[in-house]
Design goal:
Elements: H1 2-15, H2 17-51, H3 60-72, H4 78-95, H5 98-114, H6 118-135, H7 138-154, H8 158-175, H9 178-194, H10 198-215, H11 218-235, H12 238-255, H13 258-274, H14 278-292, H15 298-314, H16 318-335, H17 338-354, H18 358-375, H19 378-420, H20 425-493, H21 499-504, H22 506-530, E1 539-542, H23 543-553, H24 555-560, E2 564-567, E3 574-577, H25 579-595, E4 602-610, E5 613-620, H26 627-632, H27 654-664, E6 669-674, E7 678-686
Parallel strand pairs: 2-4
Antiparallel strand pairs: 1-3, 4-5, 5-7, 6-7
Helix pairs in contact: 1-12, 2-3, 3-4, 3-5, 4-5, 5-6, 5-7, 6-7, 7-8, 7-9, 8-9, 8-19, 9-10, 9-11, 10-11, 11-12, 11-13, 12-13, 13-14, 13-15, 14-15, 15-16, 15-17, 16-17, 17-18, 18-20, 19-20, 20-22, 22-27, 23-25, 25-27
Length: 696
């Protein structure tokens, strides 16, 4: 009921908000002036130092002022941030001032992060972190690790982001930095929210609220309320979202924190958007855009523009919506922000669908699907699940420790009472013995439960390895084409496209279906081997006939790329092997050769006798591979997959399947290759001269 009353009250408040915003704009000008004054203060200090007779550029105070001024200019003049940070870095190196070098690396990392150059940002953060560890400066380490983890999160690598935040939490607890401890837990909560694990996200927000209560800083509390409101909005709990965002807005307006105010106004627009109140949504988005005009925050603008595009789309103003969505898409692409690109792609898909521009709509839909799969990939989910398991284990461990402590406390009371009464000395001995026995039992129970948890964790990891590989292949190589086919058929069934338009997509659909069929055959064969369901049944087999059949099967693909396939196998090339399994090997190797051989190439299949084995080779005139790829090609858990010379798709499963099948038949497989000179795959099979028992 309090949330409902608050929600009703906000609608009356909103009526008078416009006047308040006018006042806030005036205040923001004052705040911007205050920011300029702070920048002026640093500039004056730098000028005063330079004016001294004995001034030296190697003065550590001068270097610190350069770094601080750069930090103040981050969201106002990024070019100055870059110049100041480079100057401070060079002076720090020249003077051997390690702390100045560390702070300069942090500032450079921030600059490249804002520009979307993740590689340079991560490089500077990592170098800075090494220097901070060398200095033993845990405060600087903590802030660098936080920024490094944030950069991994921007890249969509939530697994590495989570590892960084957990490391930062340990440092924050060690130096008792509650503010950073609050930030780290809030960042982890947001990672869970991004994976739609809202229950776990809210658990971490409970920790954040407890820490914020100890800090007593209302600005930090307001920032947390803003993020929490965004999570509640995504959950569909709009009353809770509105309550939290209004609480946050009041505090941030009082303190004139412009960057966070821009974010809170955007979240308020998001809440109204989810209520389909497009007019109010645009009102708050416009207020956020007004504040963004004084800021240099590209990532913040992406969500803002995307929300505005959705609101205009809801009003039926598709042209305005498309213009704003393309702005968001351009920024996301420029700074390589995967999550932002994903949201923009979905909005542009809806817009193009409304315009009946189905080809463009399908392109954006496939991009959205691809990015969705990447952002929710198994590595991220597995890391977050493992943290949840560890958290539950720590809770159980803490419960057992508390029970142990209670039992010991009870026994201590017995001992104290017994010591007070000397006449019952024998009773004290019994109690001590009993206490030790109970403690041993509790310790054994704790150890037993720990072993059970570790065993379950190991079993879960082993069980997930096969599932992870299958789901990865299905998600990346089957889901995209199946989704596109499903969407196209739905459009055709609904009458959104004509038969002639549908037929234009038939060649692409045929290629997708052929790829799906080939992938499914490999998946089924590999799945049987992983589940001990594949039995090798060797018999006398004519290898030249099997090769000829596969050449015929793949002749249409070869003809399409004008590739000549030549079999040099002589008659009666007889082997003792399972024909079904070797058929899979030959088909995959020829298919791979076709995939990586350009137009007018040639593939040659031959065999030579080697003692009691046949050595079969499949040689192509394709693009070849470098030494590193050749070395890792048949390694365990290797899943190398690339696009062919005509953009043919692959699963990365074929070579693993070939290796298993050849080895099950008593042979071995290897490759020789050089870039731009082609590749030659070799495998051996037993001759038919001896009698072989059935292998399993």
């Amino acid at each position: 009921m309090p949330f409902i009353l608050t929600y009703i009250r906000t609608h009356f408040i909103d009526v008078f908000k416009h006047a308040a915003i006018v006042i806030l704009v005036i205040c923001s000008i004052t705040d911007a002036y205050a920011q300029q004054e702070l920048q002026k203060k640093y500039k004056d200090s730098i000028r005063q130092l330079r004016s001294h007779k004995d001034f030296s550029t190697k003065d550590t105070l001068y270097i610190d002022l350069l770094n601080e001024l750069g930090s103040q200019l981050r969201y106002y003049n990024t070019d100055s941030l870059l110049l100041l940070s480079k100057e401070a870095l060079q002076l720090s190196i020249d003077s051997g001032y390690k702390e100045g070098e560390c702070r300069s690396r942090l500032r450079l990392g921030d600059y490249f992060s804002d520009k979307g150059d993740s590689d340079k940002a991560i490089y500077n953060y990592e170098v800075g972190h090494e220097i901070a560890k060398e200095l033993g400066n845990k405060d600087l380490s903590l802030r660098i690790i936080n920024n490094l983890a944030g950069e991994n999160a921007y890249k969509g690598d939530y697994a590495h982001a989570l590892t960084g935040y957990l490391e930062a939490i340990e440092i924050a607890e060690e130096i008792d930095d509650k503010k950073m401890l609050s930030i780290m837990n809030e960042n982890i909560a947001n990672l869970y929210a991004s994976q739609k694990d809202y229950e776990q996200s809210l658990d971490f927000y409970k920790k954040v609220k407890k820490i914020n209560g100890e800090l007593g800083n209302e600005i930090i509390i307001a920032e947390t309320l803003s993020n929490l409101a965004s999570v509640y909005a995504d959950m569909g709990k709009l009353d809770y979202a509105m309550f939290n965002i209004n609480s946050s807005v009041g505090i941030l307006e009082k303190h004139k924190i412009l960057d966070w105010l821009a974010f809170t106004y955007e979240i308020k627009g998001k809440i109204y958007l989810k209520e389909n109140k497009y007019k109010w949504a645009l009102y708050w988005y416009n207020q956020s855009e007004l504040l963004h005009s004084d800021l240099d925050d590209d990532r913040g603008k992406i969500d803002l523009y995307n929300g505005m595009a959705e609101a205009y789309l809801g009003q039926g103003k598709d042209s305005i919506s498309e213009k704003i969505a393309l702005q968001a898409y351009a920024i996301s692409d420029r700074i390589q922000f995967m999550e932002g690109t994903q949201k923009c792609a979905y909005t542009l898909y809806r817009i193009n669908k409304n315009k009946k521009n189905y080809s463009e709509a399908l392109n954006f839909h496939e991009l959205y699907q691809k990015l969705s799969d990447t952002l929710s990939r198994n590595e991220n989910k597995k890391s977050l699940t493992m943290l949840k398991t560890k958290t539950e284990y720590d809770k159980q461990k803490q419960t057992l420790i508390e029970e142990n402590e209670k039992a010991l406390a009870q026994q201590q009371r017995y001992i104290i009472a017994a010591l007070a009464i000397l006449v019952v000395f024998i009773i004290i001995i019994i109690l001590v013995y009993r206490a030790e026995k109970i403690q041993k039992r509790l310790n054994k129970e704790l150890e037993a439960k720990k072993e059970i948890l570790e065993k379950r964790e190991s079993e879960l990891q082993d069980s997930n390895e096969t599932k992870t590989k299958l789901f990865s292949i299905i998600g990346h190589d089957l889901r995209g084409p199946v989704g596109a086919l499903q969407e196209l058929l739905r459009l055709y069934a609904d009458g959104d496209i004509e038969t002639d338009e549908f037929l234009e997509f038939v060649p692409k659909l045929r290629e997708d279906v052929d790829h799906i069929s080939f992938t499914l055959n490999n998946l089924l064969s590999w799945g049987h081997t992983q589940m001990n369901g594949s039995v090798t049944k060797p018999s006398i087999m004519a290898l030249e006939s099997l090769v000829s059949e596969n050449i015929k099967l793949l002749s249409e693909i070869a003809k399409k790329k004008s590739i000549k396939i030549v079999s040099e196998l002589v008659e009666n090339t007889l082997t003792w092997s399972d024909s079904n399994q070797i058929d899979i090997v030959v088909r995959n190797l020829i298919s791979n050769a076709l995939k990586f051989t350009p137009q007018n190439g040639m593939i040659t299949i031959s065999a030579r006798e080697r003692d009691n084995l046949w050595e079969v080779s499949i040689k192509d005139t394709g693009v070849g591979m470098d030494k590193i790829t050749v070395k890792n090609l048949f390694e365990k858990n290797s899943n190398i997959t690339t696009y062919g010379t005509a953009n043919e798709k692959g699963t990365g499963l074929g070579l693993a399947l070939c290796k298993e099948m050849v080895e099950k038949n008593g042979g071995s497989i290897w490759v020789e290759s050089a870039l731009r000179k082609g590749s030659c795959f070799f495998f051996t099979l037993p001759k038919r001269e001896k009698s072989y028992s059935q292998a399993v």
